[in-house]
Design a protein that fits this description.
- The protein folds into 2 domains: 101 residues, Rossmann fold, CATH 3.40.50.720; 204 residues, Vaccinia Virus protein VP39 (Rossmann fold, 3-Layer(aba) Sandwich), CATH 3.40.50.150.
- Helix content is 28%, strand content 18%.
- The strands form 2 sheets. The protein has a 7-stranded mixed beta sheet, with helices on both faces.
Length: 339
């Protein structure tokens, strides 16, 4: 359905337009804006893995902290009630109606096409969880830590809560904790904070090249190399200092070739693996598995995302093994527990 009248709110006129939601509804809204002779600057998305969609960059919502909130207008592009997205923007200081609006009804009216059905070759769709239990909103220790790390991570609050919970389970077995693929340190510092609160004194090693993604191969469908290089060891060190963490070791270099020898010689109870591509993920698992304690946990951030199919291919092979339990997490994570 073509748009014949001007339908955008007066509050958006003359402002930088931003679309919250880079999925199917975001695509439809972009088409509506084009018919209105309007352009937008970029997408934000809670599941952002960086990169571009339809020629526009995709950022995490924290990108808005760099904007003058009086000069932007955000359209919420979601196929269900966008109250959670609205709540995020409200917490950032934006005002509903003046600086953002739910564009869902407008999209449903002018672009009511059905969402494409997933296929065997492309088994992805936008998944919306219908349950109401949201412990991340009431657990004060988690909430305090989240407020400190949210601007230093691309991992959304739901996956961070899973990490927080799984670290507690891993603390029941012997070993230390690691994160491989740190970016700006948000999820790694969440792990270290939880580890410390649980009374564990083993080191938490945070390992990253700090020069972006490495070991891209033909098995990877999106990454080309060196993405997510907008970080540094100093940025992570500053977050460690801010959170008063004394149990963290930051290791710079390719893992395990450069930094594996720097890992303390002790068992491993928990590791968060966020390396985006097949060969890097494979090499991490080969290094960690012999040292992973029975009952130890590996969490793979990249299992359920369409930009990281190489990691999914690797884990779909691994989950056939009889010496582990594999769980496909509800927010895109893959979880392995060693028997």
């Amino acid at each position: 359905m073509e748009v014949s009248e001007h339908i955008l709110p007066l509050a958006s006129q003359g402002k930088k337009l931003i679309l919250f939601g880079a999925g199917d509804y975001g695509h439809r809204l972009a088409e509506i804006l084009r018919e209105q002779d309007e352009d937008f600057a970029y997408y934000i998305d809670n599941c952002s893995r960086g990169g571009y969609v339809c020629g526009k960059p995709v950022y995490a919502p924290q990108q808005l902290s760099q904007e003058d909130k009086h000069q932007i207008f955000v359209f919420l592009a979601a196929d269900k009630a966008a109250w959670d997205m609205a709540q995020q923007l409200t917490e950032m200081g934006l005002i509903s109606g003046a600086q953002f609006m739910d564009a869902g009804p407008m999209i449903q009216k002018y672009r009511p096409d059905p969402v494409p059905v997933p296929t065997k070759e492309y088994p992805y769709e936008d998944v919306h969880i219908g349950g109401l239990y949201a412990p991340w909103n009431v657990k004060e220790d988690f909430a305090d830590a989240y407020r400190m790390v949210k601007d230093n991570t691309l991992v959304d609050i739901h996956r961070l809560w899973n990490l927080w919970s799984l670290v507690a389970e891993a603390s029941k077995v012997d070993g230390m904790a690691l994160e491989i693929g740190v970016w700006r340190g948000g999820s790694g510092c969440m792990i270290a904070k939880r580890w410390s609160l649980l009374g564990r004194h083993e080191p938490v090693c945070l390992c990253d090249t700090f020069t972006g993604v490495v070991k891209v191969s033909e098995k990877d469908n999106y990454y080309k190399g060196h993405e997510h290089a907008d970080t540094s060891k100093e940025i992570v060190s500053e977050l460690v200092r801010k959170m008063e963490l004394t149990n963290v070791r930051i290791l710079q270099g390719i893992f395990p070739e450069d930094t594996g020898a720097e890992i303390p010689d002790q068992p491993i109870a928990f590791a968060h693996i966020d390396v985006d591509v097949y060969e890097s993920c494979r090499d991490v698992v080969r290094f960690l598995w012999p040292r992973l304690s029975h009952g130890g946990i590996l969490v793979f951030d990249d299992y359920g995302f369409p930009t990281t199919e190489g990691v999914r291919l690797l884990l779909d092979d691994l989950k056939q093994r009889k010496d582990l339990i594999f769980i496909a997490g509800g927010y895109g994570q893959g979880i392995i527990i060693k028997k």
